[in-house]
Amino acid sequence: xxxxxxxxxxxxxxxxxxxxxxxxxxxxxxxxxxxxxxxxxxxxxxxxxxxxxxxxxxxxxxxxxxxxxxxxxxxxxxxxxxxxxxxxxxxxxxxxxxxxxxxxxxxxxxxxxxxxxxxxxxxxxxxxxxxxxxxxxxxxxxxxxxxxxxxxxxxxxxxxxxxxxxxxxxxxxxxxxxxxxxxxxxxxxx
Length: 190
Description:
The protein is α/β, with parallel strands linked by helices. The protein has one domain: Peptidyl-tRNA hydrolase (Rossmann fold, 3-Layer(aba) Sandwich). The chain is 38% helix and 21% strand. The chain is built from seven helices and seven strands; from the N terminus they run βαβββααββαβααα. It has a seven-stranded mixed sheet with strand order 2-3-4-1-5-7-6, sandwiched between helices. The protein is globular, with a radius of gyration of 15 Å. It starts with a strand and ends in a 5-residue tail after the last helix.
């Protein structure tokens, strides 16, 4: 079984913000594979289903971004998955242009507080992740204000395309492996 987790904040006021792009990706996966997020357990909103013959659990932690590891640790322990192979975390990245994807099999938190918490609670940096570019904060802006803001009219088509590419990249990871997904998606424009 694979657990695919999208990071974000649970309150409605955060819907559609840059920081919640991980939640948006999980919604896109649910829509693409007819999976309902109808289970509330392990401090997450979850849905079970099948993607390309692989059993999956899609999850949106409800712990707020900076405590995402709390929920993920519970999910990993309960389902007894191998985090290096069967966990995929999807989240926002201000160092990537809006809509760009960067897939990695391991890595540091890169300043992302949600990822810092996950790495600390799992005790490893070795697990697949998909970073979705939300663009660099404008000069003079507070980072929190920027990531908790919404995408501009000009950025929205790029973000819609990124959601399609994220769904496709998850399919490739599940069917062909992380290295193939990295080869296919890391160098392509949004």
